[in-house]
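Reopening closed ticket. The problem is back. First fold of the pair:
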Amino acid sequence: MNLTEANVGESCIVKDIVTDDEELKAFLFRLGCYSGEAITVISRKKSGYTVAIKDGRYNIDSNIAEAIQI
């Protein structure tokens, strides 16, 4: 299941990042989004998602959310 299927306020554990885009993988790694790390969907918006990773909040679009497997 990917992050788009998570409920708002639900804390999940990242299992994998499924993409062929190495830049996207590196970007998510810099945010602290990698296998074994907790991620929480704060809100869903028309343009994407607001998520909490470690001590930060980030806005990501739907394509990035689909790449994050939980």
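Second fold of the pair, where the issue appears:
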Amino acid sequence: MVTRRRVLAAGIAAGSAGLTGASLVPLLSARAAEATEAPATGTPLAIELFKVPMPLIPVARPVSTAGGVDTYEVTTRKVTKEIVPGIQTELLTYDGQFPGATIKARKNRPVRIVQRNGLDIPISRHLHGASVPQDSDGDPMDTIEPGGKRVYTYPNKQPHASLWYHDHAHHVESENVYRGLQGSYLISDCTEDALPLPKGRYDVLIQLRDADFDPTGQLLYAMSDRSRNTLLVNGAPYPYFQVAARKYRLRFANTSNMRFFELRLADGSDMIQIGSDGGLLPRPNTTKSVYLSSGERADVVIDFSRYPVGTQVVLQNTGGRGPVEQVGQVMRFDVTHTADDPSSVPSVLRTLPPLPTPTGSRTIVMRMDEDGRPDPQAYMDEKLYDPERIDASVRYGASEIWTVTNTNVKAPHNFHMHLVQFRVIERNGNAPGPAESGLKDTVVLQPGETVKLQATFDTYTGDYVYHCHMLDHSAMGMMATMRIR
């Protein structure tokens, strides 16, 4: 296993300029040297809208359930698969799946992942949104070398939540996730089970992301690429999804590196948001749109019984950059038949415990270079990520208020903490809206915005990172380490 100390020692031997994240670029992957190159040019692929069915992401099956622990064996490997119809695209995958198979976990039932690295680059598997011991967190510097193996243990002591897993090897996490190293992880519990929400085939995971293809159908990658104008849903471009005229629970996850989505139905109909990053909201939120920055999740209920059979309804994206015909339409729902519907959305979904009295506070400033320089960097509190530096020392059991500000004029960011789900208590001096009323692990900050959040550190001790989850920004240095002790 490649450890922090080994990588740092190699950096010193290589004569690096300083002990910063930037100095580690040549050590982790030669690909990072290409990060500022412009994407290849050529005639873009012509992809027709709504011509392929939306794939349903397969559910992973454990190789063992002995001792009340679900054990999975997973290998990262390079494969070619059809994304654009008729064209094979090279991908980095977990077990050949794009996206990776969904792991369904249960509160208080541990999951054990035996992760093998079949790639020629280091990887680090991170379970985004999970409360796990430090040695299973997937620290950016705690990597698995090519041909190596690592066991991750997830206790699943936290409440129900729609989490996701992805690569986190520093400086290459952005490209690795973009090329396919990500999948979903759903924790369920009795609180969620007891509700009459849509279940079974009517509870559907929908992963959203963007991509940029060259004329031969291969994924193009460049750091901070603004030309990723093909939208993928569960790995397919602009699919259609056949639904019954009844209620569906749709678990949206934005697994893009950089793109934000504002999702709405083309006919302006209501959606009911029932969940966010850390599980169900206290109460449902009827809304016309759902906004997701990179890494955020939202569960919504859409009632298709209001449409006659034969209706086609487009899910639009009104919050992204790029041509409307390419990024303004996401997928299409086709109402094809009727079905019984015993489900409902209750007026109360869960009761969150009251926030404890804060024991401390701190401020965090996020900024990146946006003056047009050829090698921009990104900073947390005006510092580049240094894996040997502890940026915040937190007492175990503390409940702190963190005031996070994006000081950029043009660039948006978002803020993600490992280990904890937090509560948003203030946005720009005002109470948060209903979409941010639940548990969160990732929160958006538009240019000039300030968000106050409260996090309680009472699960595990150790070193954990916090960073911008626009992965290109964290790969550029916008990441820091907190030590809970």
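Update: turned out to be a display glitch only; the data is intact. The CA atoms of residues 14 and 27 lie 9 Å apart. The longest helix spans residues 4-13. Please close again.
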